[in-house]
Each structure stands twice: as structure tokens, then as C-alpha cells.
């Protein structure tokens, strides 16, 4: 174990952080890229120089080609000048000779210009040559051109001389000296051109070879960079993979609830610090689980005690509820009885007050009845007198009816005597007769009724006298009853007030007992709810303990 710890410590001392590893990989990549770019740059620089040299040699080659063409043209001008001289000498007329001379003079300007152009091109070729061999060939060309150029001036001068000696001299120069110098110049130019073409090909071959070399070296450098980076990345990935595998193992154990695992960090880099942090988290979680188990056991014990206390409180609340219900029922019955007595006393007082009121009213009615009896007796006496007077009037009406009946009878007789003229009068006389007869009958009946009324009035007068005596006796009794009822009313009012106060007191007692009973019920409900919470808390504590015990410590 100590050896492993020592080995781990040694590894940790030698290890570097992932950040530094990444920086090193980036630095190595940068260095390798710089090497590849440097190789490519140097190769391209050499290729560029070769291209410049190739361009120069190409330019020299082109100028040499132009100079060779100019020299060939100059040789043609010399031959043409000799031919113009010969033609002029053989001209048949002066005019023909003058025309030939004019054509020769026209060609002289182009000839001189071509000589100057050739000199300029040769000067440019000499100034652009850099290689020793090129300078040697350029010097040979310059020397040959220096020998060849004066012959043109001589030929130009001789071409303007029309003497036969001049013509002979031109032919001699063309046959020997001019041709030899032309051939020397042409040979020097051709040799220079061949040499330059050879150098141009060498430069091109060197450029191709250099391009191939640069490409091969670049690919080799690239492959070397890939190999080096792959090796560095492989080492880094191997280290990271080991550390990640170790961390995954620890996380997997933590996921499975195994807190007994302890990781051995392979380095002090970020992954090693992660392993250390995972160990610390594991230890912290281990302590938390132990604390959770202990706390859940304490919670279970506390909930047991609280549950028992709650059950006792519930039993006490139930007893209080039962007792208060009994007392409330008894108080309710007493209150009901007192209220019944109060109601009876109130009703008795009301009855007594009603009796007193009725007695007083009866006394008043008796007094009024006595007065009315006296008034009625007087009125009935007056009614007897009036009935007597009505009897006299009826007698008078009866006498009138009898006389009317006689008159109607006489009228009927007279109408019968009158015949048809008296028929209408006879009808009226008959109706009057009937009316007189009816009136007599009615007055007879009225007389009988009045006689009967007079008899009844006498009896009424006698009865009213007796009623007056009875009402006087009732009035005396009502006065005595009113005095007794007044005393009973005072006693009943006092009793009713006392009973009402007792009823109010019992109502307050009943309300207090009902409030106590409701409080006991609320306490019982609260205790029941608290017991349910204790049960849930105990279940949650048990579940928490099971979950905590599921971890392997």
C-alpha cells in the first residue's frame, strides 16, 4: 500500500496538467508547421530564383535569335548593295542609273537602322549575362561583331561610288573579308545561343528537381509532424483515458450506492484533481448518509413519543368532549325548563293583565249598559206613546179607505149607467175600489202589529228594569275583581323578571359549555391531524432510513 502510494506520489510529481499538455501539443504543431513552411519557403525561393534565371536566359536566347536574324539581314543588305552597284554600272542610260541609285539610297536608311538595332541588342545581351561561360561567349560575340560592323560602313561608302574600282572593291570584300567576318559573327552568335539554350535547359531541369525535392521534403516533414503529433496525442489520450476510466469507475460506484470505493489519482492534473474531489464528495456523502440514518432513527423515536402524547391528548380531548356534551345537554334541559317557566309566567302575567283589562272593560261596559238600559227604557216608553198615536192614524186611514171604497162603488154604478161611455171610468173606479180594499186590509194588519208591539214594549220595559239591576250588581263585582287582579299582576311581574334572569344565566352557561365542547372537538381534530402527520413523518423517516441504508458504507 505504501509502495503504491509512493508510486502514485512519484507519478503525481512527474505529471503535468492537461492545459500544459494541450499547449505543448499546440507548440509542437506550431514548430512542425514552421519547419514545413520554412522548407517550402526555401524551396520556393530557390525555384523562384531558377525561374528568374530561366527568364533571363530565355530573354538572352530570344535576343540572340533576333541578332542572328539581323546579321542575316545585314548580309543581305551587303549583297543587295553590291547588286545595285553592278546594275548601276550596267545601266544603259543615266536615268536608269539614277533610278537604281535612288533605290539603293532608300535601302541605306533601313540598313543603318538595322546596324544600330543590332548593336543595341548585343549591348543588352552583354549587360545581362551573369555566368562566366555566358560572359565568355558574350565577349566572343562582341569581338566578332566589332570586326564585322566596320565592313558595313565600308560597303555603304563603296555603294555610293559609281567608279568601276569601287564596284570591284565591293565584290572583293564580299567574296573574302565580309563573308568571313559574317560567318565568324554568326558562329559566335550561334555558339552563344546553343550555350544559353543549354543553360536554360539546365535551369529548367534544376527547377523541376528542386520542385520535386521541395514536395518530397514537405511531405516527409508533414508525415513526421503527423507521426510526432500522433505519438504525443496517443500518450496524452492514454493518460487521459486511464484517468477518465478511473473517474468513471468512481462515479459508477457512487451511482450504485457504493460509498466504500476510494480512488487513487494517477496525476495532479485536472483529472487527478477531479478524482480527489470525487473522493472528497464520496466522504462527504458518506458522512451525510451516516448522519441521515442517525437522524432518521431519532425522528422515529421522537415521533413514537409524540404519537403517544397525541393519543393521550386525543383521549383527554374526547373525555372533555363527552363531559362537555353531557353538561351541555343538562344545561340545555335546565335552560329549556327555565325558559318554559319564564314563558308560563309571562303567559300568566299576560292572562292576568288580560283579565284586568277585561274586568275594567266589563265595568265600563256595565256602566254604559246601565246608561243604555235607562235610555232604552225611556225610548221604549216614547215608542209606546208613538204606537198609540200610529193607532189613531191607522184608524183615520181605515175610515178614509172605507169612504173611498163607497165612492168607488158609487162610481162603478154610475159608470154602468153611462154604458159604453163609462167603461173607462168603470175600470178606474174598479181599481180605486180594489186599492181602497187593499188599504183597509193593510191598515187592519198594521193595527194588529201595533197592538202586538205595544204588548212587547211593555214586556221590554219590565225586562230592561231587571237588566239594569243585574248590571249594577256586575259593576260592583268587577270593581272587586280589578283590585285583586292588580295585586296578582305585581306578583306575576316580579316572578317573571326573576325567571327571565335565570333563563339568561342558563343560556350563557349553555353557550359557554357549547364553546367548551367545540374547543374540545377542535382539539381532538387537531390532535388527530397531528397524529396523521406523525405517522407520515415516521413513514418518511423510515423511507429515508431505507434509502440511506441502501448505500454501501
UniProtKB/TrEMBL annotation:
Gene3D superfamilies registered for this protein in UniProt: Methyl-accepting chemotaxis protein
Protein name: Methyl-accepting chemotaxis protein 4
Highest taxon of source: Bacteria
Keyword list, A-Z: Membrane, Transducer, Transmembrane, Transmembrane helix
Signal peptide (residue range): none
Keyword Cell membrane: no
Residues annotated as domain HAMP: 238-290
Gene Ontology molecular-function annotations: transmembrane signaling receptor activity
Residue ranges annotated for the Methyl-accepting transducer domain, each copy included: 309-531
A cellular component annotation (GO) from this entry: membrane
SMART domains in the cross-refs: HAMP (SM00304), MA (SM00283)
TM regions (residue ranges): 22-44, 216-237
UniProt xrefs under PROSITE patterns: CHEMOTAXIS_TRANSDUC_2, HAMP
A Gene Ontology biological process term: chemotaxis
Gene source species: Mobiluncus mulieris
Pfam families for the chain: 4HB_MCP_1, HAMP, MCPsignal
Family designation: Belongs to the methyl-accepting chemotaxis (MCP) protein family.
Amino acid at each position: 500500500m505504501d509502495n503504491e502510494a509512493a508510486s502514485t506520489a512519484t507519478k503525481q510529481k512527474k505529471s503535468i496538467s492537461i492545459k500544459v499538455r494541450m499547449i505543448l501539443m499546440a507548440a509542437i504543431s506550431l514548430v512542425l508547421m514552421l519547419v514545413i513552411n520554412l522548407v517550402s519557403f526555401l524551396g520556393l525561393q530557390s525555384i523562384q530564383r531558377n525561374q528568374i534565371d530561366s527568364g533571363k536566359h530565355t530573354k538572352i536566347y530570344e535576343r540572340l535569335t533576333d541578332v542572328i536574324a539581323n546579321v542575316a539581314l545585314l548580309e543581305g543588305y551587303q549583297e543587295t548593295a553590291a547588286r545595285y552597284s553592278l546594275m548601276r554600272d550596267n545601266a544603259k542610260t543615266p536615268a536608269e542609273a539614277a533610278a537604281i541609285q535612288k533605290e539603293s539610297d532608300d535601302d541605306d536608311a533601313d540598313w543603318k537602322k538595322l546596324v544600330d538595332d543590332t548593336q543595341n541588342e548585343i549591348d543588352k545581351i552583354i549587360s545581362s549575362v551573369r555566368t562566366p561561360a555566358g560572359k565568355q561567349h558574350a565577349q566572343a560575340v562582341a569581338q566578332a561583331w566589332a570586326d564585322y560592323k566596320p565592313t558595313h560602313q565600308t560597303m555603304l561608302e563603296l555603294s555610293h561610288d559609281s567608279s568601276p574600282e569601287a564596284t570591284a572593291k565591293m565584290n572583293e570584300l564580299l567574296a573574302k573579308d565580309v563573308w568571313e567576318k559574317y560567318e565568324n559573327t554568326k558562329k559566335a552568335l550561334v555558339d552563344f545561343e546553343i550555350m544559353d539554350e543549354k543553360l536554360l535547359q539546365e535551369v529548367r531541369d534544376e527547377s523541376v528537381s528542386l520542385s520535386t525535392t521541395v514536395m518530397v521534403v514537405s511531405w516527409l516533414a508533414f508525415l513526421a509532424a503527423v507521426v510526432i503529433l500522433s505519438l504525443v496525442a496517443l500518450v496524452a489520450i492514454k493518460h487521459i483515458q486511464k484517468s477518465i476510466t478511473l473517474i468513471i469507475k468512481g462515479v459508477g460506484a457512487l451511482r450504485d450506492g457504493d460509498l466504500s470505493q476510494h480512488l487513487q489519482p494517477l496525476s495532479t492534473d485536472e483529472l487527478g484533481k477531479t478524482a480527489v474531489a470525487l473522493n472528497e464528495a464520496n466522504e462527504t456523502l458518506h458522512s451525510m448518509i451516516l448522519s441521515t440514518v442517525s437522524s432518521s432513527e431519532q425522528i422515529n423515536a421522537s415521533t413514537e413519543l409524540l404519537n403517544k402524547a397525541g393519543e393521550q391528548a386525543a383521549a383527554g380531548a374526547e373525555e372533555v368532549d363527552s363531559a362537555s356534551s353531557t353538561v351541555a345537554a343538562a344545561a340545555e334541559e335546565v335552560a329549556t325548563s327555565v325558559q318554559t317557566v319564564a314563558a308560563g309566567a309571562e303567559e300568566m302575567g299576560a292572562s292576568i293583565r288580560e283579565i284586568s283589562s277585561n274586568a275594567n272593560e266589563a265595568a265600563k261596559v256595565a256602566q254604559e249598559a246601565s246608561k243604555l238600559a235607562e235610555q232604552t227604557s225611556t225610548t221604549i216608553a216614547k215608542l209606546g206613546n208613538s204606537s198609540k198615536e200610529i193607532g189613531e192614524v191607522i184608524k183615520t186611514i181605515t175610515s178614509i179607505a172605507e169612504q173611498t171604497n163607497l165612492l168607488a162603488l158609487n162610481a162603478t154604478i154610475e159608470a154602468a149607467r153611462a154604458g159604453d161611455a163609462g167603461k173607462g171610468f168603470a175600470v178606474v173606479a174598479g181599481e180605486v175600489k180594489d186599492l181602497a180594499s187593499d188599504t183597509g186590509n193593510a191598515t187592519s194588519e198594521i193595527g194588529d202589529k201595533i197592538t202586538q208591539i205595544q204588548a212587547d214594549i211593555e214586556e221590554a220595559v219590565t225586562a230592561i228594569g231587571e237588566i239594569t239591576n243585574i248590571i249594577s250588581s256586575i259593576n260592583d263585582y268587577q270593581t272587586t275583581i280589578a283590585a285583586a287582579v292588580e295585586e296578582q299582576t305585581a306578583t306575576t311581574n316580579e316572578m317573571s323578571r326573576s325567571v327571565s334572569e335565570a333563563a339568561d344565566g342558563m343560556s350563557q352557561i349553555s353557550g359557554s359549555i357549547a364553546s367548551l365542547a367545540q374547543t374540545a372537538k377542535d382539539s381532538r381534530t387537531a390532535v388527530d391531524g397531528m397524529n396523521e402527520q406523525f405517522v407520515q413523518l415516521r413513514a418518511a423517516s423510515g423511507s429515508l432510513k431505507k434509502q440511506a441504508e441502501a448505500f454501501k458504507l
